[in-house]
Automatic annotation (TrEMBL):
Species per Swiss-Prot/TrEMBL record: Carnobacterium inhibens subsp. gilichinskyi
Family matches, as InterPro entries: DUF1576 (IPR011470)
Protein's UniProt name: Membrane protein
Annotated keywords: Membrane, Transmembrane, Transmembrane helix
Residues that span the membrane, as ranges: 20-42, 63-87, 99-127, 139-158, 164-185, 197-219, 239-263, 283-304, 335-360, 372-393, 405-423
Pfam families linked to this entry: DUF1576
Length: 454
């Protein structure tokens, strides 16, 4: 492909270092600060930030509506900086999975995560590392993604009828307990969906949230559902998002030597298990991929006339982040199409925030379409759309990664069926046994049984 006009820069140049990756993440947080100051004064941001910290935050609580837009973006910026500090302190490379975590945390900091409700969970994971005498860096992803259960901390602290000090203590205790049990459970539950749902911590967090809510309900404590969303910010926020993605795209092209070289190989990744795209394909192509995903998802929201509020932008940021960790336009699009198809057939309001969250976060199933093809991806998206509406009751909004929870069940249902179809199809084609990802019927044993005397 013909080179673009600017001087090419090859992947081996010293410019592509850990320092550059940190700089990109830090600059992302600075753009959020600038955006916050565009919407609100410092005084408004201060009081809005206090309200975010001391309010319940279960799904769906849009911080744009609860406080104000500026406070929400400042909260996201602070959460990014906190995450970068934690990553830096462990002295690990800023990998694709960690890049995805940063964007995911930024997104969910617009509707559920904050400094107060996230820190106890991270402390719990740190305590688990100390108790097991293993390095904290081994559980870094659990610590960062595990903040999905932040609303549980806020709910216990501020909405359970305790005094302020007692609530704070019990909320923090609940968060530490969550952090303690999260690492071993997340490692175990990864086998449930065989890596076909990228939000593995979301599934684990759903199980933990379900257990806590069952305990609450057993003692007569009911957690009210919340649906607090804002509207009316499409013009300024779409300008910001497209500008951000143009910057990511331009930086990606520049770092990739001024071309799209290698992106066709990038699109051949199925995404199963969350491959580190930065390690496999380099920073340049990864940034390019993230930008394209951002354009795709933002355009999808605007086409169905949705609102760019806190939760929806959180969904966009999450998809963009996972452009470094398993997603690309080829494996994401069929999932969006499947969700859209069922939404249209069931007369769902396609512009609603709940539908858009299902579509955006439903792309956790991107590996299904990447591995089994477009039709399988459409089927997975369709099934996910049906399942997700019945899942949130189980954890009462305590798990922000509700679609990760639902996606785990969807993958567990559809993947074995797809595996059987593809296994027998390939078996007939090759006239021999092909080892499946998931064990199907023991064909050899069945044949022996048929031929054996009774």
């Amino acid at each position: 492909m013909e080179k673009l006009w600017f001087p090419p820069l090859q992947e081996e140049d010293p410019l592509i270092t850990e320092k550059i990756k940190y700089s990109i993440a830090f600059l992302f947080s600075l753009t959020l600060v600038g955006l916050a100051l565009h919407f609100n004064t410092l005084e408004e941001i201060w009081y809005g930030s206090l309200k975010i910290l001391i309010s319940p935050a279960n799904l769906v609580t849009d911080y744009f509506k609860l406080a104000n837009v500026g406070a929400a973006f400042i909260n996201a910026a602070l959460m990014i900086i906190k995450s970068l500090f934690i990553i830096r302190s462990t002295k690990v490379a800023l990998s694709g999975p960690l890049f995805a975590a940063i964007f995911t945390i930024a997104g969910f900091s617009l509707f559920g995560k904050n400094l107060f409700n996230s820190i106890p969970i991270i402390v719990g994971v740190l305590l688990y590392a100390k108790l097991t005498r293993t390095p904290f860096k081994n559980y870094l992803l659990s610590a960062l993604y595990g903040t999905a259960l932040g609303p549980l901390v806020s709910e216990v602290a501020f909405n359970s009828g305790f005094s302020f000090s007692t609530g704070i203590f019990l909320g923090c205790t609940a968060g530490v307990i969550v952090g303690l049990i999260l690492p071993p459970l997340s490692r175990h539950f990864a086998s449930f969906h065989k890596g076909f749902s990228l939000y593995n911590i979301g599934f684990t967090a759903g199980i933990i949230g379900m257990a806590f809510i069952a305990f609450f309900r057993a003692y007569g404590i009911e957690v009210d559902t919340v649906y607090l969303v804002s509207h009316g910010y499409n013009q300024p926020l779409s300008i910001y998002l497209y500008s951000l993605f143009i910057l990511l795209f331009s930086g990606g092209i520049y770092l990739n030597g001024g071309s799209f070289s290698g992106y066709s190989n990038f699109l051949n990744e199925d995404g199963r298990g969350g491959p580190d795209f930065m390690e496999r394909h380099g920073l340049g192509l990864t940034l390019l991929n993230m930008a394209l995903l951002g354009v795709l998802t933002t355009t999808f929201v605007l086409i169905v006339r949705g609102e760019l509020n806190g939760p929806v932008i959180g969904g966009v940021f999450t998809v963009v982040g996972f452009g470094a960790f398993g997603k690309h336009v080829k494996n994401v699009f069929p999932i969006l199409l499947g969700v859209l198809l069922v939404g249209w057939l069931t007369s769902t309001e396609l512009s609603s925030t709940s539908f858009l969250l299902t579509a955006l976060f439903g792309t956790t199933l991107a590996p299904v379409s990447g591995h089994y093809g477009v039709i399988a991806g459409i089927l997975a998206g369709s099934l996910h759309m049906v399942i997700v509406t019945n899942i949130s009751y189980l954890h009462a909004g305590m798990n922000l990664y509700n679609n990760g929870f639902s996606g785990g069940f969807t993958a567990a249902i559809i993947v074995p069926l797809l595996e059987v179809v593809f296994f027998h199809k390939n078996n007939r084609k090759n006239k021999g046994l092909i080892k499946p990802i998931i064990n199907t019927e023991p064909v050899e044993d069945l044949e022996k049984t048929k031929n054996s005397p009774e």
